[in-house]
Amino acid sequence: MANETTLTKPAAEEAAAAEHTRSGRFYRPHVDILEQPDELLVMADVPGARGDRIDVKFEDGSLSIHAEVDPRQSDDREYLLREYGVGDFYRTFRVSEAVDAGKISAEYADGVLTLHLPKAEAVRPRKIAVKTE
Q: How many CA atoms lie within 13 A of 27 on its CB side?
């Protein structure tokens, strides 16, 4: 069913209660989620992150993305105007589909993190042959 939501956002209270071990700003990355017959495809914008500093976890139906971003400029400069904020990215989703956690894969290119969450065999659509006489 293409119109069903397969990932849900955590409640505002749950997101606010999350504790971070690093000080500084955290941003919520923009995400596109596609449901395909065999997998869920998650694409998250995390500009400025490095692939080796992106942490993706899937546990108990919860998908977490944390991408660390280094500061662009030192704080000892005196800015006339400063609009571009820099900080880590963090977002968590509850996944309602049955996902084969052992086969999740991720790739990062051009500021976009792409996650492949394969559906478990039991929930994949399958074609059933109809026998005729």
A: 18
Q: Which CATH architecture has domain 27-72+92-125?
A: Sandwich (2.60)
Which residues, in sequence order, are bridge partners of residue 34? 41
* pLDDT at residue 21 greater than cutoff 70: no
Average pLDDT over residues 22-29: 79
What is d(CA 64, CA 92) in angstroms, rounded to the nearest whole number?
4
Predicted pLDDT at 126: 72
CA distance 72 to 68: 12
Q: What are phi and psi of 103, to 5 degrees?
A: -110, 10
Q: Are strands 88-95 and 49-59 parallel, antiparallel or unpaired?
A: unpaired
**pLDDT surpassing 80 at residue 110:** yes
Closest CA to 111 of 27, 36, 22: 27
